[in-house]
Amino acid sequence: MALEPSDPLERAARALRQEEAQEPRWLELSESIMTRVRGISWPAARVLATDAEGRPDRDGLGSRTYVSSRVVRDALRRALTTGQVEPKDIDLRVVDDHLERLDLQLVATYAQDLQEVGSWARSETLRVLDEQLGPLPDLDPDTDVSITITDLHDDDARLGAD
After folding, report:
1. Residue at 2 is within a domain
2. How far apart (Å, rounded) are the C-alpha atoms in residues 62 and 72?
3. What are phi and psi of 30, to 5 degrees?
4. What pTM was estimated for this model as a whole?
5. Taking a C-beta distance cutoff of 8 angstroms, is the pair 76, 85 a contact?
6. How far is 79 from 74, CA to CA, in rounded Å?
7. Are residues 101 and 154 part of one domain?
């Protein structure tokens, strides 16, 4: 009797390979699965959140609130995924619990003004950061938030496949 693999990704990959003969979708799904797994298994860091005035201390006793970088990354991914744009990579650089830099790589469809896509992505990114972490006085949105469109596709059906 063969033992089942204990790794969930390996079990899912095996199941998809077995179904390949019936429905050849393995190639379409494999990269999508790996992209999602990379997003799930990304190491987490705690990020210091601020109050409405940008102060880290919540009271006179020095209480502070931290948010997991996974929570921030997932919120960014949800906000930036549309039928025409999708994040390919979201890299939060956290040093001593402070968000120091955010590098965002996007995939978009053709026939869009990429300047507008970049401007929209920057404003959405800053909105999500403010919503999740509060105002970050040490984060300069012009120099510390990098947005790059790394790939273009001819239709929205291919987004998520790369």
Report:
1. no
2. 23
3. -60, -45
4. 0.71
5. no
6. 9
7. yes
